[in-house]
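Hi support team,

I'm filing this because I wasn't sure whether my run with FE2/S2 (inorganic) cluster finished correctly. The job status page said complete, but I'd like someone to confirm that the output block is well-formed before I use it downstream. Pasting the exact inputs I used:
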Amino acid sequence: MADDCKKAKTLATGDRTIPPPDAKMITIYIMGREYQVPETLTIMKAIEYAGYSYTRGCGCRGGICGACGTFYRFLGDYRLRSGLACQTVAEENMVIMQLPFFPANRPGYDLEQMTGDAHEELRRLYPEVFKCVGCGTCTRTCPMDIDVMDYIALMKRGDLKGAAHKSFDCVMCGLCASRCPAQISQFNAAMFVRRIYGKNGLPVAGHLAKRVEEVKAGKYESMLKEVSSMNPEDVKKLYVEREREPDMAEAGKWMPKDTSKL
Ligand code: SF4
Ligand code: SF4
Ligand code: FES
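And here is everything the job wrote out:
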């Protein structure tokens, strides 16, 4: 082991990953406890390196699912920062706390029963949206760089189409809601807005309706039975060898050679 590694403090718990001999170790703090981890790891990998196993707070590992919202500070710096643990690289003197869940307002509703004014439905379900004080904390907190305050303003104004588009990249991490002084559950309100805008404001996709009818009529039953009766290795082979859409195919132009299963 190189001298640098010899100098590193012993890990407090676990050391399942063996860093390369020349790895530079950095000090980070996880839930208030000090650890030495190799630099260049994401916060998620650094936490695992330190010996923790994820049962919550980790999902896709690719910045999509929003399960790994994280707050952190640097020692000596008053600023509270935020990011996704699977996307943010751990740095020296980072003091880290993950937020695997935030108890946001999430009222039940049935979109099919909603025939009235969508803006009024938003007001009924999420009255807190209209109490936004425009502080911008949500926008500064969002790891997806979404202008959260702006989509809330669009909601207040009744521009649900604008709010639906502006919030589209939300990964539902909940970090914005955890810091909102008006106690707004921005991401859940935005999800409602995207749903109701999709129901009322977008044309029905004809091909989807057709496919649903085909599924209901049993078109795929025999194919499903055939695959279900295969052994797992053959299913894997079938999957690996399937005809795939090329990565750079022009949208809507590609068709498989065998169209019998469409
Ligand atoms: S809008 Fe809120 S919940 Fe959505 S990604 Fe940004 S911080 Fe997370
Ligand atoms: S944090 Fe809350 S009050 Fe502040 S701008 Fe965002 S939604 Fe409005
Ligand atoms: S684990 Fe899914 S966004 Fe980080």
